[in-house]
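go over this chain:
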Amino acid sequence: AIMKYFINHTHALSMFRENSKLDLLKVTKTRFSSHYILLKRIMECREALATTIVLNSWRDWVKCGDENTRNNGAKVCDTIKDDSFWDDVESVLAITKPIFVLIKFCNGERPKMGEIYERKDNMMGEIKDIMQENTYASYYHQVEKIILTKWEKVNIPLHCFGVCIKPMLL
């Protein structure tokens, strides 16, 4: 909602750009992990977003807008000011980073079939470690179930064979 608000209101985006060296990113359907990348960028722009919404020019602009602009602007301001929102973003990024790293690894050029199983196991261990001391620790078993269900869909004997022969290739 934050990103959409700024992207859809050129005046708001202009004020944001005056306070940030980075630009906000859109979620794209063709790029893997775009939600992770979007959340990471919003986190990186936190200070610039907070600075933008306290400007007098921001408040004046929102007041002059139509009812929808005012209502959504108020929601965006409340969200940006809400520390629990930022804590949630940090938690989500921490939990999903190992998944992002594995997907990024798989998206590379060289052959990887023999390494994916070990990296998947490492990813699950990292997520478990992260979630032990996380606000969402009680959701670990649900996260694990989702990941393993998706994993079972792509787990085929040929991949297992790739893992078995990898040591022989070295």
Remarks:
- The chain has a mean pLDDT of 86.
- The CA atoms of residues 68 and 113 lie 51 Å apart.
